[in-house]
Specification:
about 450 residues, alpha/beta, Aspartate Aminotransferase, domain 2, 7-stranded mixed beta sheet, flat, EC 2.5.1.73, PyrdxlP-dep_Trfase_major, transferase
Amino acid sequence: MKEQIQKTFEALFALEDIREVLREALPTGPDPAEEQAIREGVARVRAVLDDLEAGTGSPQVTKIAGSLDIRNREEAYINIQPIQAAGRLTLEARKALIAYGDGYSTCDACRKPFRLDQITKPPIAAFHEDLARFLNMDVVRVVPGARRGFQAVASTLVKPGDPVIVSALAHYTEFLAVEGAGGVVKEVSVSKENLVTPDAVAAKIEDVRRETGRTPALAMIDHVDYQFGNVHDVAGIAKVAHQYDVPFLLNGAYTVGTMPVDGRAIGADFVVGSGHKSMASPAPSGVLAATAEWAPRVFRTTAMVGDLTRRKFGVKEVEMLGCTLMGANLIAMMASFPAVRERTLRWDEEVKKSNHFIDGLLAIEGTKVLSEYPRKHTLTKVDTTGSFDTVAATHKRRGFFLSDELSGRGIAGEFAGATRTWKLNTFGLSWKKIRYLTEAFQEIAAKYELNVRTA
């Protein structure tokens, strides 16, 4: 199989060599030397395809630009890396990257008023409308990652010294967004189950008001946190925030694009999503959605005038720095969107697969799940201190023995060397791969004489 993967990449690269000749040719067509180069290129492609079909042939291309390895993780392995699973590109997105890889490829037909979300060819304006409907919000912008969504909202709402509510499980980018705006983070404690509750949010808001004499300028809470993959009662939290007139930002980095997210039903004033974590898009990419009440503020247009030239750029949005996610990143997000929208309707099946694997992992004696269980999400934190770490204690490779065993079975993405607490994500794996994954972990356990319970 690995020979076929190698030859597939070589065939793609050989086709790109032909494409380069066509790019250098005049619009009237290739000259004789270019025609010869194309014929030679086609012959190379045929030879590579023969090897691909037969599963033979030694590697002819091992580096890109002399130093970059060919990344074949998604072809050669089952990848359970926590932040990569839902960011795997769809077939259509990979095609889009080939066709739209050039820098300003989205701007070929840009016309006045020269703003990204208003471009109609390719249909970027329509995509923004589709995203708004998908999230059941009023206005959406694409942004270079969820963090830029946090930044845009924080810089709009938060003034120096303002308290901002986040959870004790909040991502570091939420902290940075608040700090960049001059605000002060106030963390909500979590329950013994590592859940953020509406009551805890209310208590924290009350504490902040007593301590500072201020109502928080913003509450940012993760729909699903990155540390445990737990699903939090964000609708209840939004309701509490609004009772105190605190605007609520839903961090949907691990939910927008994987499971249904209805911003209006949740009660969110802002919804932030991550394209590269959960929308099958290249990094950096993300979305920021707002209600009609808040959109005029977070998407305000510039009013500044040059003192010498008297230039004005009135349609440009200040927090977006004019245009945001240009080129191949946006086009690939658009290409993936039909599949992303459809896959959210199969979320229950993804959770079933997650629980099937976790149940199989728990069958290995000494293994624990630190996330809520049964699982409600595909991102899970596990504790194998009582199982695989007992092997690592005496193995010459220490904790890396598990990475070696998994890699030998075509599994990647676990934290290399970690055999105590670590995270994984099963999102997007077929049942065939889920069963293979489960059996692989149990086979490794049995090999090292760990007890595996049978059903």
